[in-house]
Design brief:
By secondary structure, the protein is mostly helical. It has one domain (about 1-129). The protein is about 80% helix and about 0% strand. The protein is built from 8 helices and no strands. It has helices at about 1-25, 30-50, 55-65, 70-80, 80-90, 95-105, 105-110, 120-129. Helix 4 (about 70-80) crosses helix 6 (about 95-105).
Length: about 130
């Protein structure tokens, strides 16, 4: 029951993030609007995935990190963003804000020049946490 409630809360939080992203899109430039719509759509899709595949969230997190690598890298530099929130949910992080701050604090280790282009950021996150 606790897993279901936790999954439900994550799903609702991610849907809320998606709604905020779409709302912000109306006041942004065309370039930013397209980026926010894509991000909001991704967050909504992630909310659906998290609720459907509780046991497979790690693999989903890796796939998500592969497909959203550019956005995750950009958001990790600032420590906040919808993609970071979605990744935090997939990794079952209790506090998405703290996760974003941790990503920002460890940005150079996660994305530095010595990092192999073939490695997945999720593997690096798990190894460091």
């Amino acid at each position: 029951m606790h897993k279901q409630t936790s999954t439900w809360k994550r799903g609702l939080a991610l849907c809320g993030v998606a709604a905020v992203g779409l709302g912000l899109a109306t006041s942004s430039s065309a370039r930013d609007r397209d980026d926010l719509i894509t991000t909001a759509s991704t967050a909504g899709t992630t909310a659906y995935i998290v609720g459907k595949n509780i046991d497979d969230d790690f693999a989903q997190a890796q796939d998500f990190a592969d497909t959203q690598s550019v956005a995750l890298r950009r958001e990790a530099a600032t420590g906040e963003g919808e993609n970071l929130d979605a990744l935090a949910a997939l990794l079952h992080e209790d506090n998405p804000d703290a996760f974003g701050q941790w990503m920002q604090s460890n940005y150079s280790t996660l994305y530095g020049p010595e990092v192999s282009a073939d490695s997945n950021v999720v593997d690096r996150i798990v190894a460091m946490r």
